[in-house]
Design goal:
Number of domains: 2
CATH superfamily of the largest domain: Response regulator
Radius of gyration: 19 Å
Largest sheet: 5 strands, parallel
Protein name: Two component transcriptional regulator, winged helix family
GO molecular function: phosphorelay response regulator activity; transcription cis-regulatory region binding
Strand content: 15-25%
Distance between the termini: 34 Å
CATH class of the largest domain: Alpha Beta
Mean pLDDT: 86
Keywords: DNA-binding, Phosphoprotein, Transcription, Transcription regulation, Two-component regulatory system
CATH topology of the largest domain: Rossmann fold
InterPro entries: CheY-like_superfamily, OmpR/PhoB-type_DNA-bd, Sig_transdc_resp-reg_C-effctor, Sig_transdc_resp-reg_receiver, WalR-like, WH-like_DNA-bd_sf
Low-confidence stretches: none
GO biological process, one term: regulation of DNA-templated transcription
Length: about 230
């Protein structure tokens, strides 16, 4: 899953990025409100963390502008403000939750997971035929057979299934799954696709991941194994 952090203090931003990447999130950082808003409107994020008091555009205004576009991405405020009026003001601007500075990383992580769980409530199970993915528990099943994946394999499969029946270009895959935002060798994708295909086919999911030569990959409804 891909998160955006809008935070003007490099120490806090770096701390959050390192911690969240250890939890297998892809993380982008913006150091002011204008850059953060631009990134939020251009890219697809699963959750946005925004400091209330940031340069250029305040966190409140960033939140309002995102909501004006109809984007329902979960937004979590970081704030040193602690009055009830401030909290209500932030929530009324469109935030889903807030956490007061200073904070413990474990509490922030728990709040992030709550928001992602709520976001995925209607699609706790991502399906492609007999393939079933639970993004909360990180479990994968082909029919009744559980498939054990590494965190990166799971992230790749989840991204492909969320975009089922749409071609996922190599550049988009490397950006969303590996958090790489520049031209680079994408051969690592092929390696992981090979790993995934072997595991899924062994579990009876058939040819779920198909190659679009010269472009990327697509997930289609798998066939039940005849064996």
């Amino acid at each position: 899953m891909r998160l955006l952090i809008i935070e003007d203090e490099p120490g806090i931003a770096g701390f959050l990025k390192d911690g969240l990447e250890e939890e297998y999130f892809a993380v982008d950082i913006a150091y002011d409100g204008k850059s953060g808003l631009d990134m939020a409107l251009i890219n697809e994020y699963d959750l946005i963390i925004v400091d209330w008091m940031i340069p250029a555009i305040s966190g409140i205004e960033v939140c309002r502008q995102i909501r004006k576009t109809g984007n329902a991405v979960p937004i979590l405020f970081l704030t040193a403000k602690d009055t009830l009026e401030d909290v209500i003001f932030g929530l009324d601007a469109g935030a889903n939750d807030y956490i007061k500075k200073p904070f413990e990383f474990e509490e922030l992580l728990a709040r992030i997971r709550v928001q992602l769980r709520n976001k995925n409530r209607n699609d706790d199970s991502l399906n492609a035929g007999i393939l079933n993915i639970n993004p909360v528990t990180h479990q994968v099943f082909c029919a009744s057979t559980e498939v054990t994946l590494t965190p990166k394999e799971f992230a790749l499969l989840e991204y492909l299934v969320r975009n089922k029946d749409r071609v996922c270009t190599r550049s988009r895959i490397i950006e969303h799954v590996w958090d790489i935002h520049f031209d680079s060798d994408t051969s690592v994708i092929d390696v992981y696709i090979t790993f995934l295909r072997r595991k899924l086919e062994a579990a009876g999911c058939g040819n779920i991941i198909q190659t679009i030569r010269g472009v990327g990959y697509i997930v289609r409804e798998p066939e039940i194994s005849k064996t």
